[in-house]
Here is the input.
Amino acid sequence: MVDRRSGCAINLTLEVIGDRWSLLVIRDMIFGGKRYFREFLDSEEGISSNILADRLKTLVEEGIITRSGDASHKQKVRYSLTEQGIELLPVLAAMSAWGVKYLPVTEELSIRAKLAAAGGPKLAARFMNELREEHLGQPRTRRRGPTVREELQAAYEEVVARKRRRA
Here is the structure.
């Protein structure tokens, strides 16, 4: 059992996921679909391998993600979100909305946050159900068309393409 500083809900949450790198790992799993160590290393923010290994270990110990072997390769480890990790999606969405409102974010890196905010709780619930299918193996719901992640990625790619045409 980890010794906690206080019983305050905000403090306890910050003790589990409050550092920059843990939140970015969770972000990459939710919004980027990343599951493997090397994929996390490729993030724009440039996390070092020793910090990444430490954060992944902590997130596993705290029950936010799980770690399992990959059947396709003996030495590969795949990480999956737990229900606790999936339920962080609205927290990250709220942080993104705050960042869009108050910080100098770029258009291409803020489009997902804007769409998530516009989609509200309904979009978040749909996305969380898709994450449960992907990470927890829950039965697939019958839905046609792109996933939420695919919709957000398409919007991102559209902004990037538009900016390239202007340049």
